[in-house]
Design brief:
Elements lengths: L1 E6 L8 E7 L2 E7 L12 H4 L7 H7 L5 E2 L8 E2 L2 H19 L4 E5 L5 H15 L4 E3 L6 H11 L16 E5 L3 H4 L1 H13 L4 E5 L12 E3 L6 H15 L4 H7 E2 L1 H8 L4 H8 L3 H13 L3 E5 L1 H4 L4 H15 L8 E4 L6 H6 L6 E2 L3 E2 L3 H11 L12 H9 L5 E5 L3 H4 L3 H10 L2 E6 L12 E4 L8 E4 L4 E5 L12 H16 L12 H11 L12 H7 L2 E2 L26 E2 L18 E6 L26 E3 L1 H6 L7 E5 L3 E9 L7 E5 L8 E4 L4 E3 L21 E7 L4
Parallel strand pairs: 6-7, 6-16, 8-9, 8-12, 9-10, 11-22, 12-13, 16-17, 17-18, 23-27, 24-26
Antiparallel strand pairs: 1-2, 2-3, 4-5, 4-18, 14-15, 19-20, 20-21, 23-30, 24-27, 25-26, 25-30, 26-28, 28-29
Helix pairs in contact: 3-20, 4-20, 4-21, 5-14, 8-11, 8-12, 8-14, 17-19
């Protein structure tokens, strides 16, 4: 039996795993006791990984050879790799020649490895000359990126997991870490057990399992986080709990913010957020007066039409109280996906460039062009996730290349997304799982390797880079994501820059990573002191880790100097705004979405295991018992849940975790479990038949945490 150290492919905690294999098959998995993210522990998802990779499941679920669909709506047929790659390069080349580079779009994934991401980014921005490359991480953390940059000057979470052990107050906002980041949550539980004096506050419209651990639970109304944060600052100012020295020495813009939060009186906050005034006072006091306060936050802040404001106004609280840059303190955004951070690092989003450079900055574009050996990088911002599918639905984008993500299930406003893929002239789906709903829309299907087969690196929520290593050969004819992108890129180079040296000379992931590493030189995430060899011998490392450093930095801004022009952090005076689609008389419920404990994304992997349905067996809409009673509903009775965009039918379930006029549906259920219709009658699936693509104007992250819906009892025929 062989043992291979690698990383769990599910959430942003980034737990280390040891994969046991024999005869080319994965036979077991266990937590890596030496990995600093989990010290040997795994959650239900991680500990069952090997069971999702058995030969029987691989045969049923994996895409094992390249396929092409000769006519839309017909079954795809097999073709060889060379023919498949030639066709992709031929069609992308043709469309770029006929319509210009912005007629193509790449929609990639926070589940790709850093090396995969790097190649896709260079292919789009460096070779083809379009910034139309975005990722499902746009749905996950782009508001966190925007919030950090706006206030602290760089996209760098300043804290680390170990800070949980040093905090005296934990403020968990918009995060059900108990389900979404289970191993981190176990660390929180252990810290509380060891230090019962540590205060835990949870702000969330749902009383989740995370909220059950709280000393103070703040059941704020959906979308009112900014008002809550302004109200907390108002109280802190009134009570004299801010840190005037820290504000004076390390920040600017406080006066403007002070004027703004003057209006956020306890009465206004209590009414807007639905929180008792005494709890607001208690929360403000605990936050400001604890020796160390750590905020942990996730999609409740990010997936919002005010996502940037929510992130930035929470960071305001840390700056105003000096709760940053010391052990156990700081604003710490949690990434949902295993490598959303790596994607940020290589600039794999429509508005970013390599190593945290900005597309809008001419000097940054010139630096990246020089690194890549191209004349320039286009300045026109690319289409972000929602914009990209809208542009394809409008006929502006004519070719889509979708890699390692399942937008036919996961994107909001499914009707538009599906129309986009139907209207596009050419759709490439590069995927490990043939069961992903998006495969139905592909003209070409390219089989990709997945966990247990892939090699590269990922970065977890705390900026720690880990190796991902293969334990078994690729299934069927599957190839690595970076390899597929390189092979198409070289074919495109033959059309677009014949006779010139390739921009993609890579034969190994290490060669790609080394180029990425060089791009970070002198940047805030500088990893020029790190190597594959160091990651393998000394284990996962934090960035930055500069040349000559022995270790990375677990904690940032300990010297009070921020990566801004004058070294000071900026207070963000951003006003509270309600959700994009407020509930109203025709659509009186606020629908929110979220994770279950034992499933991941669209269930392509976790849905193969019966045991992972033991916790929750089938889809349902959770409602407050009073709303159930008012509508004459009993547990399990079917209801229509309808938004302006579509409708689904599913059983209702009473839950005291849900407040009146609110509703919750888990995000995971796909077409096999939850069918529906668009408002025009087209077949749709899953909760995203209902969700809105309204997004934060700064981060462009859509508001998956709120849609106005109505709920009516389904009449049986
Ligand atoms: Fe995997 Fe996340 Fe569970 Fe760790 S906590 S085992 S990374 S799913």
């Amino acid at each position: 039996m062989s043992q291979t150290r690698s990383t769990c492919p599910y959430c942003g905690v980034g737990c280390g795993v040891i994969i046991e294999s024999e005869g080319g098959q994965i036979i077991g998995v266990r937590g890596d006791p030496q990995h600093p993210a989990n010290f040997g522990k795994l959650c239900t998802k991680g500990s069952t990984l090997h069971l999702t990779a058995t030969p029987a499941i691989t045969r049923q679920t994996r895409l094992l050879q390249p396929m092409q669909r000769l006519r839309r709506g017909h079954a795809p047929v097999a073709l060889g790799w060379d023919a498949a790659l030639d066709r992709v390069a031929g069609e992308f080349g043709r469309i770029v020649r006929e319509h210009g580079p912005d007629a193509v779009g790449f929609y990639i994934s926070g589940q790709l490895l850093t090396e995969d991401y790097y190649v896709f980014n260079k292919l789009a921005k460096g070779l083809l000359g379009t910034n139309n490359v975005d990722t499902n991480s746009r749905l996950c953390m782009s508001s966190a990126v925007a919030g950090y940059k706006l206030t602290l000057g760089a996209d760098a979470p300043p804290a680390c997991y170990d800070d949980v052990n040093h905090a005296q107050c934990l403020f968990i906002v918009g995060s059900n870490a108990a389900y979404a980041h289970p191993i981190l949550f176990r660390r929180i539980e252990a810290a509380k057990q060891k230090n019962p004096a540590m205060k835990i506050m949870v702000a969330d419209p749902r009383r989740t399992d995370t909220a059950e651990l709280a000393d103070l639970y703040l059941p704020l109304l959906p979308g009112t986080d900014v008002m809550l944060f302004h109200g907390l600052l108002h109280v802190m100012l009134w009570e004299g709990w801010t840190d005037a020295t820290y504000i004076a020495e390390h920040t600017y813009g406080f006066d403007e913010l002070k004027s703004l939060v003057r209006e956020a009186t306890p009465d206004v906050v209590a009414q807007t957020c639905g929180i008792p005034k005494e709890d607001l006072f208690k929360a403000a006091q605990w936050f400001a007066q604890s020796p160390a306060t750590l905020s942990l936050y996730c999609q409740g802040l990010n997936q919002s039409s005010s996502g940037t404001a929510k992130n930035a106004t929470l960071i305001n609280l840390h700056l105003a109280t000096g709760q940053i840059g010391k052990p156990g303190a700081g604003p710490f955004s949690l990434t949902g996906q295993p490598n959303a951070m790596g994607g940020r690092e290589v600039g794999g989003l429509a508005n970013l460039l390599s190593a945290h450079r900005d597309l809008a900055n001419p000097a940054h574009r010139a630096e990246v062009a020089a690194l890549w050996g191209v004349a320039d990088v286009p300045s026109k911002p690319g289409k972000t996730a929602v914009e990209m599918f809208q542009a394809a639905a409008d006929g502006e984008i004519k070719a889509l290349w979708i890699a390692c993500t399942n937008p036919a299930q996961s994107m909001p406003d499914q009707a538009t997304v599906r129309r986009a893929m139907q209207r596009a002239e050419f759709v490439v789906v590069q995927e490990a799982f043939a069961t992903a709903a998006t495969c139905d829309f592909a003209d070409i299907l390219l089989p990709a390797t997945t966990w247990g087969e892939k090699e590269g690196t990922v970065t977890n929520s705390e900026r720690r880079i880990s190796r991902v290593l293969p334990a078994v050969p690729a299934a069927g004819e599957a190839r690595h994501d970076w390899r597929i992108a390189v092979d198409v890129a070289r074919r495109l180079e033959a059309q677009l820059r014949p006779g010139q040296p390739s921009l993609f000379p890579y034969e190994t992931t290490e060669a790609i990573w080394n180029e990425h590493r060089e791009s970070t030189r002198g940047r805030d995430l500088d990893i020029t002191g790190l190597s594959y060899a160091m990651l393998e011998t000394e284990g996962p490392q934090f960035w930055p880790l500069r040349q000559g450093d022995r270790t990375g930095k677990p904690r940032l801004y300990e010297d009070g100097v921020f990566p801004t022009a004058d070294g000071k952090a900026k207070f963000a005076a951003l006003p509270y705004q309600s959700t994009a689609e407020p509930s109203e008389s025709h659509f009186p419920f606020s629908l929110t979405t979220g994770r279950l404990r034992d499933h991941w994304h669209g269930m392509t992997r976790t849905g193969t295991l019966g045991r992972l349905f033991g916790h929750v067996a089938e889809p349902c809409v959770q409602l407050n018992p009073r709303d159930m009673e008012r509508r004459g509903l009993k547990d399990g009775e079917l209801v229509h849940v309808t938004s302006k965009r579509g409708a689904i039918v599913l059983p209702a379930q009473a839950s005291h975790t849900i407040q009146p006029t609110q509703a919750f549906i888990a995000m995971h259920w796909g077409p096999e479990y939850l069918s529906g219709r668009s408002s025009q009658g087209e077949p749709l699936a899953g909760v995203n038949a209902l969700t809105t693509s309204a997004y934060c104007p700064t981060s462009k992250q859509p508001e998956l945490k709120h849609a106005a819906v109505k709920i009516l009892k389904a009449e049986l025929p």
